[in-house]
Write a structure and sequence with these properties.
By secondary structure, the chain is α/β, with parallel strands linked by helices. Helix content is 30%, strand content 22%. Helix 4 packs across helix 5.
Length: 377
């Protein structure tokens, strides 16, 4: 059996939010609570869940941007937490991060050429004489012209700035990129272009992604595997196609039932969780979801469910009762067809999913059926 590119075991991260006058912690946020997962080379693992579930914290823990309270992280078989300063710099060359807001992550006082040349010089990727040429190559890789190298970040659109951020991550030739909601701040048309770019780069360079998102339609398009998080824990982990076809955990079912159906008058059976998300400062005992779950029993209130894979591996679920739950809700078609609507849909879907005249690939999205070509930004 091959060694995973990245492996996290029992990650825990607590943040002290309040101390006594003597400095003793009196309130602690349990941001990540015993999370384990692995990522193979060339694979995309998506972390999904609502705000505050610990997704971004995990991304920073595996890159050792913050130190875990407990647990272990291994990259290519080496313990990342045991690396000294020199070894950690070498690890950072192999694992990079793309932030959510490209404008905030790019230095406004530096040109694009200087931004892309900085990691080349820091890690001595290419000789000084070749750095300008390498900057131009990186820009071309992400679909930007070499002449843009003299510009500053404020002179670009949001989609172009995110392409620059991706080029900066690629500069050091990494094997793993953590994408922390890289398209959530972009327009839908630009979002599809950036997703296509990430997918093309993965095929060309053999990259592995940890893709953090709250947009399930985006996740379905790009992910190989999906890990669903709730209040600092992974509650379900499965292949993307399998998870979207048949979610098992009550929280996963509630998330997927909220995806809009791209067919007018069609209905999806909603599974709405009652109440609010508990505070991470004082999470409930047992299963964190039991206060909001309609299927909870006494065992759920006192015993933490383990993330247990089914026989033969693959689909893992942290729920005591998932085998007893009824099948997940399905989409109910419209009661009567609409000839006018059918003609309208046919008119707009005839040329979908082909290369546009301007050379931009189109992409199917969960929320819009088939999208046509979008202008480059």
């Amino acid at each position: 059996m091959s060694v995973p590119l990245l492996e996290a075991q029992g990650l825990v991260r607590h943040f002290v939010v309040r101390r006594s006058v003597f400095g003793t912690p009196t309130a602690t946020v349990q941001a990540v609570d015993g999370v384990s997962f692995s990522v193979a080379a060339g694979e995309t693992l998506a972390l999904v869940g609502e705000s505050g579930s610990g997704k971004s914290t995990i991304g920073r823990l595996v890159l050792r941007l913050i130190e875990p309270t407990a647990g272990a992280v291994r990259f290519e078989g080496r313990n990342v937490l045991a690396l000294d300063e020199r070894e950690l710099r070498g690890f950072r060359r192999r694992a990079q991060l793309v932030f959510q807001d490209p404008y905030a992550s790019l230095n406004p006082r530096m040109t694009i050429a200087a931004i892309l040349a900085e990691p080349l010089a820091l890690h001595d990727v290419v000789p000084p004489a070749r750095r300008r040429e390498r900057v131009y190559e990186l820009l071309e890789m992400v679909g930007l012209e070499a002449r843009f190298a003299r510009r500053y970040p404020h002179e670009f659109s949001g989609g172009q700035r995110q392409r620059v951020a991706i080029a900066r991550a690629l500069a050091v030739e990494p094997k793993l990129i953590v994408c922390d909601e890289p398209v959530s701040a972009l327009d839908v048309s630009v979002r599809s272009q950036v997703l296509n770019l990430l997918r093309d780069l993965q095929r060309q360079l053999g990259l592995a992604y940890i893709f953090i998102s709250h947009d399930l339609a985006v996740v379905k398009h790009i992910a190989d595997r999906v890990a669903v998080m709730y209040l600092g824990r992974i509650v379900e982990d499965a292949a993307a196609e399998e998870l979207f076809r048949g979610p098992r955990h009550p929280y996963s079912r509630a998330l997927l039932s909220a995806i809009p159906v791209p067919r007018p008058r069609a209905r999806r059976e909603r599974q709405i969780l009652q109440g609010d998300v508990p505070s991470a400062i004082d999470p409930p005992a047992g299963c964190h979801l039991h206060l909001r779950c309609a299927h909870a029993v006494e065992r759920c209130r006192i015993e933490r469910p383990l993330l247990t894979p089914e026989a033969g591996g693959g689909h893992a679920t942290a729920c005591h009762r998932w085998t007893e739950l009824p099948p997940a809700g399905s989409v109910t078609p419209a009661d009567a067809p609409s000839p006018a609507l059918d003609r309208l849909v046919a008119a707009f879907s005839g040329a979908a999913d082909v290369r546009a005249g301007g050379g931009v690939d189109t992409v199917e999205t969960e929320f819009a059926g088939r999208a046509g070509p979008a202008s480059v930004r």
